[in-house]
Amino acid sequence: MKTTPRNYAKALAALLKTQPVTAELVQNFVKILRKSHQEKMLNRIVNIAEQILIEENGEIKVDVISASEMTEKNIADLGKMIESATNLKPLISYKVDKGLKGGVKLRVKDYMIDASVSGKIEMMKRSFES
Amino acid sequence: MELIEKLGIDWKLIIAQIINFGIVLFLLYKFAYKPVLSALDKRKNMIEKGVNDAKKSEELLAEIENMKERALNSVKEKTAEMMAEAAKEASSMKQEMLAEAHNEAKKAIDKAKTEMEAQKQSMLKEAKSDIGRMIVAATTKILEREFSESDQKRLMEDAAKEIANVI
């Protein structure tokens, strides 16, 4: 049975909890991935492993894309909302994309949550086209 | 004998006359009676033959008439049969042609209906798409103009709630 990227990520996270990141550790891990022809999944596996480690600390990594600059209060408010919904402390990083026209997009793990105006308009467009 | 002589009868003359009569009778018989009889027989035969021929001709004529009648009847029957057959075939052909014409008409109507439906759907789709584009354009303009802090907050809340569904 083929090992999934999530399983590799779990193994990597378990490894990282017991020992520091060294060049040898990284090389060995890449070798294993190459053997099973999954070296292209390295970035994804590392991201999932990072997420697993963060979650184990009761935290969650959230990438926020906003249509306008967010004030510290905005970020704090969003953090509170996420914490209230997930019971996890969010580690928020954000960038601005004026193309969104309003609202936000949140990337959590492998998921992209689109609560932007451009996303809503796009959905509306698709519903008219279908 | 004396009486005969007294009466002036000459035996010799009588005998000569008898002989003459016999000769005349013979000659008449030979040259007149027989040819006449023969001619009469011939005539009789000819007449009989003529009568027979006439009878035969009549019979033949009757036979011919019968044959003609039979042939005519046969022709009539055949003609009637052929006419009936032709009428039947014509009726069958008519039915087939009618059925075919009906099918063709139905196909044409169905095709026209399908085409009309496709056109209608296409027009509806186009209209829907046009209306959609207008609505989207209008909504975009309104949102760009009217989008407020409270809208931003509501969208952030929605996004935060959705995180709970995906993790």
Explain this structure.
The complex is a heterodimer of chains A (130) and B (167). Chain A is of the alpha+beta class and 130 residues long. In chain A, 54% of the residues lie in helices and 22% in strands. Chain A has helices at 5-18, 23-35, 42-56, 72-86, 117-129, and strands spanning 59-66, 89-96, 103-108, 111-116. Chain A has a 4-stranded mixed β-sheet with strand order 2-1-3-4. In chain A, helix 1 packs across helix 3 (42-56). Chain B is mostly helical and 167 residues long. Helix content of chain B is 95%, strand content 0%. The longest helix of chain B is centred in the middle third of the chain and has 136 residues, at 11-146. The radius of gyration of chain B is 65 Å and the shape is rod-shaped. At the A-B interface, helix 4, strand 3, strand 4 and helix 5 of A face helix 2 and helix 3 of B.
